[in-house]
Amino acid sequence: QSVLTQPPSASGTPGQRVSISCSGSSSNIGRNGISWFQQLPGTAPKLLMYSTHQRPSGVPDRISGSKSGTSASLAISGLQSEDEADYYCAAWDDSLNGWVFGGGTKLTVL
Amino acid sequence: QEQLVESGGGVVQPGRSLRLSCAASGFIFSTYAMHWVRQAPGKGLEWVAVISYDGSNKYYADSVKGRFTIARDNSENTLYLQMNSLRTEDTAFYYCVRWGYCTNIICPGGMDVWGQGTTVAVSS
């Protein structure tokens, strides 16, 4: 059971906007920045977002991150077929003194 | 080009030890904190351990605390993970990861460079 809770799956059609949620607690999301990762099949994860809403160089601005209280979201607008992947959230947990990941969300582009 | 290359994985019996290495290149290794993150077959990501840029601070996941040791040699641009008392549940793909965008371990940064990973299989 992951400390951060994500829906196991999400889907959308090309061009649509989809949002993936990540629920935590006051010791992790409530106090610290969130990271989001994209993992394509058979490859290493790729950082999509750090410090909740900071995009690394090369990540398109159609991808955005937000946080409210103890929940965070990753939004992908203008959905493309190449967005089909697994997505993970992560945050530092002050109580555990370590990083925690969500269980991952498999995004399907219909 | 920033690169991390893991090595040292393999098949090992429960209770035995294994040491993973991660060779860094293309960036100033000694200025970055570094993580190990693992992924069991067909499962999600699990953070394992982190070490500060100078090796003075280390944190571990509860699942490996007391069994695994993270270390680094900045003169050799290499990160290590010494894994003792291995269990079947340690079977996973192990990634070496750079902590970028800030210097300290606990700061608003991100895991920005990942290695290709190395496989550890614990089986009798």
Report the structural category of chain B. mainly beta
Secondary structure category of chain A? mainly beta
What is the residue-mean pLDDT of chain B, rounded to a whole number?
97
Mean pLDDT of chain A equals 97
If helices are DSSP runs of H or I spanning 4 or more residues, what is the number of helices of chain A? 0
Rg of chain B is: 14 Å
Low-confidence stretches of chain A: none
Question: What percent of the residues of chain A sit in helical stretches (DSSP H or I)?
Answer: under 10%
Termini separation of chain A comes to: 29 Å
Radius of gyration of chain A: 13 Å
Largest sheet of chain A: 6 strands, mixed
Most residues in contact: chain pair: A-B, 27 and 24 residues
The portion of residues forming beta strands of chain B comes to over 45%
Counting copies of identical and different chains, the oligomeric state is heterodimer
Strand content of chain A: over 45%
Terminal CA distance of chain B reads 40 Å
How many DSSP-defined strands of chain A?
Answer: 9
What is the succession of H and E elements of chain A? EEEEEEEEE
Can you walk me through this structure?
Chain A is mainly β and 110 residues long. Chain A has strands at residues 9-12, 18-23, 34-39, 46-49, 63-68, 71-76, 85-93, 98-101, 105-109. Chain A is globular. Chain B is an all-beta fold. Chain B has no helices and eleven strands. In chain B, strands 2, 4, 5, 6, 9, 10 and 11 form a seven-stranded mixed sheet that branches. The A-B interface holds A 2, 33, 35, 37, 39, 44-47, 49-51, 54, 56, 86, 88, 90, 92, 96-104 and B 35, 37, 44-47, 50, 59-62, 95, 100-101, 106, 108-112, 114-117.
